[in-house]
């Protein structure tokens, strides 16, 4: 990720994915953020990811975030 904006977007994407997988901590974070427009952009961005390596990188980030949430 090139800049902080991209990293923030990826973090929000991770939060959304974890929330959709049923992790309550991430769901609470998503609700607290109250960013429906940002979530919509994240969904579009995720759908536009073509390369399997980028998808794997996002899955790794999701797993890492999940571990951090559980450790907190």
Helix-strand topology string: HHHH
CA(first)-CA(last) distance: 25 Å
What is the total tally of β strands? 0
Estimate the mean pLDDT confidence: 68
- Mind describing the biggest β-sheet? none
Can you tell me the overall shape? Answer: globular
The helix/strand class is mainly alpha
Work out the helix count. 4
Cα-atom Rg, whole angstroms? 12 Å
Helix content: over 70%
Number of domains: 1
Question: What proportion of the residues form beta strands (DSSP E)?
Answer: under 5%
Question: Stretches where pLDDT falls below 50 for ≥5 residues?
Answer: none
Keywords: Signal
Brief digest:
With 72 residues, the protein is mostly helical. The protein has helices at residues 4-20, 24-33, 36-48, 52-71.
Structure, explained:
Helix 1 packs across helix 4. The chain is globular. The mean pLDDT is about 70. It contains four helices and no strands. It has about 70 residues and is an all-alpha fold. The longest helix has 20 residues, at about 50-70. It has one domain (about 5-70).
Sequence-ordered SSE layout with sheet pairings:
Blueprint: H1 4-20, H2 24-33, H3 36-48, H4 52-71
Biased composition (Basic and acidic residues): 53-66
Region (Disordered): 53-72
Keywords: Signal
Label this structure with key terms.
83% helix, 72 residues, mainly alpha
